[in-house]
From TrEMBL:
This is 6-phosphogluconate dehydrogenase NADP-binding domain-containing protein. Residues 4-123 form the 6-phosphogluconate dehydrogenase NADP-binding domain. GO terms for molecular function: NADP binding. InterPro entries: 6PGDH_NADP-bd, NAD(P)-bd_dom_sf. It holds the Pfam family NAD_binding_2.
């Protein structure tokens, strides 16, 4: 079974991440979502085009956030004034390519962990070969 990865936010960062993932693993089960559906059109046929962030979360075990502002991250993860993540993230890895400042990232990590997920944020470090999802996560790292 091929890895299932969703990318939420198809601006420049999300688009580059999608292209790198498809180049690294052409048979990947990739889902993409953006509030502007036209940003996803280049991936029609190569990826599933989700109609909502919730659908993108449900489709995959690894969720890549390429969102420029904390408010978009909070909306995607259904994180409201109490700070708790209410979106279904249990058992999922959330990879933040444009993370908030350190203290906010720490609180987000804690909220995702409390909801049963795992959080990783940029800058991502290369994973050793053989590590779970190493090839795909390494593909998310911008080429040097």
């Amino acid at each position: 079974m091929s890895p299932r990865i969703s990318i939420v936010g198809m601006g420049r960062t999300g688009t580059q991440a999608a292209r790198r993932l498809l180049a690294a693993e052409p048979d990947i089960a990739l889902t993409v979502y953006d509030v502007d559906p036209d940003r996803c059109e280049d991936f029609r046929g190569a990826a599933t085009l989700a109609t909502s962030a919730r659908e993108a979360l449900a489709e995959s075990d690894t969720i890549v956030l390429a969102l420029p502002r904390e408010r978009e991250i909070d909306r995607t993860l259904e994180r409201f004034s109490d700070g708790e993540v209410t979106a279904p993230v249990a058992g999922k890895l959330i990879v933040d390519l444009q993370p908030p400042p350190a203290e906010r990232a720490r609180r987000l990590d804690q909220a995702i962990t409390t909801a049963g997920g795992r959080y990783a944020c940029a800058p991502l470090r290369p994973r050793p070969d053989g590590a779970p999802d190493a090839r795909l996560l390494n593909a998310l790292i911008a080429p040097r």
